[in-house]
Design brief:
298 residues, 2 domains
Length: 298
C-alpha cells in the first residue's frame, strides 16, 4: 500500500505551483490591503492634517505621481527602448506596488471625505480603477500559465494516480466508489458545454461543488481504509498516514480538474475585465485633471 498512495505524492520540485499556494498568496495580499486601508482611516481620524493644508496637499501630489507611474507598465509593451530596462515581472511588481500605494495616499489626502463634485468623481474613479486592478490580478493569476500547463498538471496527476485509461488499476482501487465519483466529476466538468452560463457556474459554483465531492470522497474512504488496515495489520500511525495520503490525492485531483475547467471561464472574464478597466482609466485621468485645475484655480 505504501508503494501506491505514496507514489502519487509529488516531489518537492514538482509541487511549487499548487492551487493552494496561489490561494494563500492571494489571501495575504488582500488582508494586507485591508489592513493598510484600515490603518489609513485610523490615521485620518487623528486630525493631524486636512485635505487642503500643506501636508494633505503633498500627500495628494505623491499619490497622484504614483498613479501616473502606473502608465509605465503598459508603455513598456509599446516603447521598444524600455524593453531592455529590467524584466517584465519587476515592472509588474512595481505596477502592483504603485497601484496600492497611490490610491492609499490619495485616500489619506482626502481623509475619506469628499468636499466637491469634481473631488468626488476623481476619488470614486480612482477607487474603481484600484478595485478593478485587484480583480484583474486575481483573474490574471488564473490564466497566465496557459491551458496547456493546467492540462499537463492534470494529466501527470492522473498518470501517477492511475486515474487514466492507460492504467489497469488506480491508486484508489481499494475504494471503487471514490474512484468512480472522481472520474464522474472529471468527465462532467471537463465535458461541459462552452457558454456563459457554464463559465459563470465554473467560477462561482464549481469550487463549492468540488468541496462537496471532496467530503463525500473522504467519507467513502473511511470504511475501505479501515478494512485494508485490518487485513494488512497496520498500526494506528500507519492508518493515519495513509488516510492523509489518500485525502491529499483526492484533493489535488479535484483541484486540478477545477483549474482546467475554470481556465476558459477566467480567460473570457479577463477579456471582459480589460474592456471595462480601460474606460475606468480614462475617466480617472479626466476627473483627476479637472480636480487639479479646480484646486489650483480656486
Amino acid at each position: 500500500m505504501s508503494s501506491t498512495l505514496e507514489a502519487t505524492m509529488p516531489a518537492p520540485a514538482q509541487a511549487k505551483a499548487s492551487p493552494r499556494h496561489h490561494s494563500s498568496s492571494d489571501l495575504w495580499i488582500y488582508l494586507l490591503i485591508g489592513a493598510l486601508v484600515g490603518g489609513a482611516w485610523l490615521l485620518t481620524r487623528q486630525g493631524y492634517f486636512k485635505a487642503g493644508d500643506d501636508i494633505g496637499y503633498w500627500l495628494g501630489v505623491a499619490g497622484g505621481v504614483m498613479m501616473l507611474t502606473l502608465f509605465s507598465y503598459p508603455l513598456r509593451k509599446y516603447v521598444r527602448p524600455l524593453h531592455r530596462l529590467g524584466k517584465v515581472k519587476w515592472w509588474f511588481l512595481a505596477h502592483m506596488i504603485m497601484g496600492i500605494g497611490g490610491p492609499l495616499l490619495i485616500l489619506i489626502h482626502s481623509t475619506f471625505k469628499v468636499g466637491s463634485l469634481n473631488a468626488a468623481v476623481a476619488l470614486y474613479s480612482m477607487l474603481l480603477v484600484a478595485g478593478s486592478g485587484v480583480v484583474g490580478r486575481f483573474i490574471y493569476l488564473r490564466v497566465h500559465r496557459g491551458l496547456s500547463g493546467q492540462k499537463l498538471n492534470l494529466q501527470q496527476l492522473q498518470s501517477r494516480a492511475g486515474l487514466d485509461e492507460s492504467e489497469a488499476r488506480s491508486r484508489l482501487h481499494f475504494a471503487p466508489e471514490v474512484e468512480a465519483r472522481l472520474l464522474a466529476f472529471s468527465e462532467a466538468q471537463l465535458g461541459a458545454a462552452a457558454n456563459w452560463s457554464t463559465w459563470l457556474r465554473q467560477v462561482f459554483v464549481l469550487p463549492v461543488q468540488m468541496w462537496l465531492v471532496y467530503w463525500q470522497c473522504v467519507a467513502g474512504l473511511r470504511h475501505p481504509l479501515i478494512q485494508l488496515a485490518r487485513r494488512r495489520h497496520w498500526s494506528a500511525e500507519d492508518l493515519s498516514r495513509r488516510r492523509y495520503l489518500a485525502r491529499k490525492l483526492v484533493r489535488r485531483y479535484l483541484a486540478n480538474v477545477v483549474r482546467v475547467a475554470q481556465f476558459s471561464a477566467y480567460e473570457r472574464l479577463f477579456a471582459l475585465w480589460h474592456v471595462v478597466h480601460v474606460p475606468f482609466i480614462y475617466i480617472l485621468v479626466i476627473s483627476s485633471v479637472v480636480h487639479v485645475i479646480a484646486v489650483h484655480a480656486y
